[in-house]
Amino acid sequence: MDFAFTAEEEAFRADLRAFLDAEVPDWWRGMFVDDERTMPFTRELCRMLAGRGWLTMAWPPEHGGAGASVWMQAIVREEMWAREEPRGPQYMNLNYIGPLVMRFGTPEQQARFLPPMAQGEVIWTQGFSEPDAGSDLASLITRAEDRGDHFIVNGQKIWTSYADAPADWCLLLTRTNRDAPKHHGISVLLVDMTTPGITVRPIDTMAGPHEFNEVFLDDVRVPRECLLGEQDHGWDVIVAGLTFERVGIARYARAGRVIEVLVEYANATGRGDDPAVRDRLADMRARYEAARLLNYRAVSMQAAGVVPTIEASVARMHNTQLEQQVGHVGLELLGPLGRLRSKDPLAPLEGEIHRYWTRNIPTTVAAGTLEIQKNIVAQRGLGLPRAP
Ligand SMILES: Cc1cc2nc3c(=O)[nH]c(=O)nc-3n(C[C@H](O)[C@H](O)[C@H](O)COP(=O)(O)OP(=O)(O)OC[C@H]3O[C@@H](n4cnc5c(N)ncnc54)[C@H](O)[C@@H]3O)c2cc1C
Fold first, then answer.
1. Tens digit of pLDDT for each residue in 256-277?
2. What span, in angstroms and rounded, lies between the C-alpha atoms of 337 and 359?
3. Number of neighbours of residue 83 by Cβ within 10 angstroms
4. Per-residue b or e along 126-146, where b marks 16 or more CB atoms closer than 10 Å to that residue's CB
């Protein structure tokens, strides 16, 4: 299979790089860095990308896109992740929340929800996990009672990234039928986060600036026109959504940039003379290439109109583990000072590697844990029995 980019795609990549060189400030280190400039910056950058037609370029023109190939979108994703994703939370709109509205939404929902995403004006969050429903997501108990022209929602979500951004809308998973088997009776609601009865409470973690929240829903009224897909058939929506999400994050690109930083550091400090250091860095580079190609395989299936369920899980397993391995190798290379945080003047590389390592501890948990990805591959890819 030939994954070479065309001349047109390479020219676009060059334009995009030049734009990002000019617009991404030196202080940008990604989200969750305790810097109040981050969210206003990502919002502004998304508006600028939208203005150039680059934010949702692979979306169809009728939904505010440019009808570009998914490979063009893959280039955008790579360049963004190589710079710590300056689109902030809006990458979720483009990668899967928007595509889900296109696939499952009514014409009215598409007309209402897609243009603000394409214009870079709106932040969505994902209300799936609950205190007792993570890997076993279908155990969720947040309930939406059908009251005819609206639903009344009660329950609690947890680990909700960006809910306090503040998010404008939430893709919320709820139970609408308690008598049905657990994978049935689930519905997806598009919930305005300003609706009375919604409380967002940040969760602090040992990793530093928080990214997570709890979201409490008390008698939240959601109009029926905000039901996405069929009532009680939300599981189909979610399976498609998680697949898009897994392909949509170019973690290898971020790992590749960190490898470059480590190689520069090894050369500048003479550590590159050490055969063990060279061995580790070369190993990371090979793993980076494998992760990149596995992602390209999933993208090529998307380009052919296929939902790459197995391939997305395989790619994600490699991508998330790569990020953790590169973080470990980085800390080893930097030695004891590498543990210092960015604010410490003695921290090598301004604490960048420590932050990267910390940031990636939960990477193999988000969007379905490593073990769950392996279960998907074992069961659906290899035909092994379902996990007990
Ligand atoms: C960075 C990050 C961002 C997140 N953002 C969001 C968000 O925006 N919205 C949202 O809804 N959720 C979000 N989550 C939550 C995430 O989806 C859940 O943490 C994840 O699905 C795991 O669920 P859990 O934490 O309940 O762990 P559990 O499901 O309790 O799992 C605990 C451990 O048991 C293992 N395990 C569980 N079941 C099996 C099995 N059948 N076979 C083998 N091993 C198993 C798991 O792999 C894990 O190691 C985020 C999580 C992280 C880390």
1. 999 999 999 999 999 999 999 9
2. 18
3. 19
4. bbbbbeebbeebeebebbbee
The alpha carbons of the chain give a radius of gyration, in whole angstroms, of 21
C-alpha of 185 from chain center: 26
pLDDT category, 327, cuts 50, 70, 90?
A: very high
- Tokens 């480590």 found at: 262
Residue 317 in contact with ligand 1 by CB distance below 6 A: no
Ligand 1 touching residue 32 (CB < 6 A): no
Q: Of all atoms in ligand 1, which is nearest to the CA of residue 173?
A: 11
Q: What is residue 245's predicted lDDT score, i.e. its pLDDT? A: 66
Q: Do 223 and 150 meet the contact criterion of CB atoms below 8 Å apart? A: yes
Model confidence at 231, in pLDDT bands (50, 70, 90)?
very high
pLDDT one-digit tens code per residue, 302-317 = 888 887 888 989 999 9
Question: Is-contact 175 140, C-beta < 8 A?
Answer: yes
Nearest CA to ligand 1 atom 43: 371
So what's the pLDDT on residue 242?
Answer: 77
75 and 20 in contact (C-beta within 8 Å)?
Answer: no
Give CA–CA dist 324/52, Å, rounded.
Answer: 34
Look up residue 327 and give its two tokens: 């973080």
User: How many other C-beta atoms can be found within 10 angstroms of the C-beta atom of residue 182?
Assistant: 16
State pTM to two decimals.
0.93
Question: CA-to-CA distance for 268 and 284, rounded, in angstroms?
Answer: 19
Report the amino acid identity of residue 331.
L
The response to whether residue 128 sits with its C-beta less than 6 Å from ligand 1 reads yes
pLDDT at 232: 97
